Amino acid sequence: MTADPFSDLRASVDRGLASFLRRSLPRLVSLHPALQPAADELEAFVLGGGKRLRPVCLLLGHRAAGGMHERVMGPALALELLHTCALIHDDVIDDADTRRGRASVQRRFAADHRARGWHGEASAFGTSAAVLLGDLAFVLADELFLDADVPSDTLVDALRLFTTMREEVMAGQYLDVVAAHEGGGGDGGELALRIAALKSGRYTIARPLQLGAVLAGGGDALIEDLFRFGEPLGQAFQIRDDVLGVFGAVEATGKSRDSDLREGKRTLLVAETSARLARDDARRFHALLGRADLTAVEADELRTLMRGSGGVEATVAMVDRLRDEALTAMRRLDVDEDTRGTLEQLARFVVDRQA
């Protein structure tokens, strides 16, 4: 398997995003010149990186149902704009400093506030601007989703599923916030798996695959089987992401390795570690996890406890089990061999990636 088996689809998505932003952002700025920095920041964020996994999955689902991706590029691009909203808002929730190797949106707007010598709190302005920019991306996603060359009743069916997906990701994000503040983690990782399914798993893999198939007029059996393939794979994606967030190379992930530890995210990695630590180590682990003033040395101590307890090994094993579950479901799909091979590439890419 190549390092990037979907480079052609990604390139099509990138071209589509650039074209859409060139058309839509001048319309925004025409409302008032003071909107130019917001337009520039949104364009830089969208075009500045990303795996484009959600648009790719929609296009693959469309192909699996016999469609041609040119007809549904609008909905595919819509998923990337929705993801833009989710990332910007997630960084506000996490009070994150960086994203994709650059300052987070709220930090960039706060810096601009200070540079201009404006009144009020720079950080409050940055937060407000970031929330509104995320909202703008959410609205633009709706505009893009409607730009599909499909029958109107088919588009309505897809829009209903698009709405379901958005409900799920907001629910998952809320549960993630609750889990981080509630603490605990004694549920054997069940909540972490549920969050992984709602916050990312369905939203990243399963629902985009289904959306593509719905837009192609695929049958109910195929749409359901794509979900059975996509949900465990999406969970594997999120759990892998959680591991990379703590142990991955900063230059590859584009964000601090310590941010999830400072926030105290109750991931499966945390649950598996907690279940295996001796009492004194567990007390130390939970005393450090979620501290806003966590030092780099203390973050490394947490990583040592994760490795030494066997928590990392157990988490990686779960990723492998979920991938195997997805591959088993894939073999039951009623698709041609080329499509089956592409979906297998997707499964292996999700698990093997380093960023």
Topology:
Layout: H1 7-29, H2 36-47, H3 53-64, H4 73-94, E1 98-99, E2 102-103, H5 105-116, H6 122-145, H7 152-182, H8 190-215, H9 220-247, H10 250-253, H11 259-263, H12 268-274, H13 279-288, H14 296-309, H15 311-331, H16 337-352
Tell me about this structure:
With 355 residues, the chain is an all-alpha fold. The protein has one domain (7-352): Farnesyl Diphosphate Synthase, CATH 1.10.600. The protein is built from 16 helices and 2 strands. The protein has helices spanning 7-29, 36-47, 53-64, 73-94, 105-116, 122-145, 152-182, 190-215, 220-247, 250-253, 259-263, 268-274, 279-288, 296-309, 311-331, 337-352, and strands at 98-99, 102-103. A two-stranded antiparallel ribbon has the order 1-2. Strand 1 and strand 2 form a beta hairpin. Helix 3 crosses helix 8. The longest helix is centred in the middle third of the chain and has 31 residues, at 152-182. The radius of gyration is 21 Å and the shape is flat. The two termini are 17 Å apart.
CATH superfamily: Farnesyl Diphosphate Synthase
Q: Low-confidence stretches at least 5 residues in length (pLDDT < 50)?
A: none
> How much helical structure, as a percent, in the residues?
over 70%
Largest beta-sheet details: 2 strands, antiparallel
Strand order in space, largest sheet: 1-2
How many β-strands, per DSSP? 2
Q: What is the H-and-E element order?
A: HHHHEEHHHHHHHHHHHH
Structural class: mainly alpha
Which class in CATH terms? Mainly Alpha
CATH-scheme architecture: Orthogonal Bundle
User: What separation lies between the terminal Cα atoms?
Assistant: 17 Å
Shape: flat
At the third CATH level, what is the topology name? Farnesyl Diphosphate Synthase
What is the typical, i.e. mean, pLDDT? 93
The rounded Rg comes to 21 Å
Question: How many independent structural domains?
Answer: 1
Beta-strand portion reads under 5%
